Amino acid sequence: MAAPLLYRRVLLKISGEALRGAQAYGLDWDFVDGLANELLAVQHLGAELCLVIGGGNIFRGASTAQRGMERASADYMGMLATVLNALAVQHALEKVGAETRVLSALPIQTVCEPYIRRRALRHLERGRIVVFAAGTGNPFFSTDTAAALRAAEMGCNALLKATQVDGVYSADPHQVADATRYDALTYKEVLSRELKVMDASAISLARENRIPIVVFSIHTPGALADVVVGQGISTVISGGD
Dihedral sign, CA of 198, 204, 209, 212? Predict the structure, then answer.
């Protein structure tokens, strides 16, 4: 018998770099297909799922702006990269039988629906996996902030942050062998210690809306399903202040 859900409606934030896998650029289709299967397994547990995907495997607006391009234009290019990733994940989900919709904050009606909050809520209520693309639709805001914003708008019970490691550490565990791993943190601790989880605006938005952030490894098979039932290895960021 499956464990009861701890979080019934969740938003998964996954980076574009994760979709890249070991490649220098683009999509690792084996990883994308595996992600689709993980998402479908979570849906079969009864959870309602939505996603925000980064675009760093294709284009990074902030780093391009540092090379002299106007920041707003660079950020719009980054938003378009997230649309490409969203369509790829939609394709993988539909291959395994999941019903899904891509909603973009930038209107691109030929390939996906425009983001309308009530429409997104209806899709979730009808059992569709919703993929939010193009960030917030505004330059100068990261996809982390977009994830926190959409989680609040959708009334999500948790924001799941998929990373390369199994939680939040005091330093990069790939570079610092004795980095401390945390099982639980408060929003205030994350901000005051400047831990590299999500940007400060995303943490603050989650804090204001009392949405716990659960950080886990996307590379551990079954970890996503474990998180939604309150099991497995993760770091939970929540109140306490």
Answer: positive
Q: How would you write the pLDDT of the chain (241 residues) with one tens digit per residue?
A: 567 999 999 999 999 999 998 888 899 999 999 999 999 999 999 999 999 999 999 987 667 767 788 999 999 999 999 999 999 999 999 999 999 999 999 999 999 999 999 999 999 999 999 999 999 999 999 999 999 999 999 999 999 999 999 999 999 998 998 999 999 999 999 999 999 899 999 999 999 999 999 999 999 999 999 999 999 999 999 986 5
Q: How far apart are CA 153 and CA 90, in angstroms?
A: 21
Edge-first strand order for the sheet with 129-133 is: 113-114, 100-104, 129-133, 48-53, 9-14, 158-163, 213-217, 235-238, 184-186
Asked if 13 and 144 touch (Cβ cutoff 8 Å), the reply is: yes
Domain architecture of the chain: domains with CATH? 9-171+208-231 (3.40.1160.10)
Q: Which residues, at least 6 apart from 70, have a Cβ–Cβ distance to it below 8 Å?
A: none
Query: How far is 137 from 83, CA to CA, in rounded Å?
Result: 11
Q: What is the DSSP string of 179-220?
A: PPEESEEEHHHHHHTT-SSS-HHHHHHHHHTT--EEEEETTS
Cβ-proximal residues to 63 (8 Å cutoff; 6+ apart), any chain: none
Please give the DSSP secondary-structure letter assigned to residue 27.
-
Residues 6+ apart with CB under 8 A from 219: 164
Q: Which of 108, 112, 110 is nearest to 130 (CA)?
A: 112
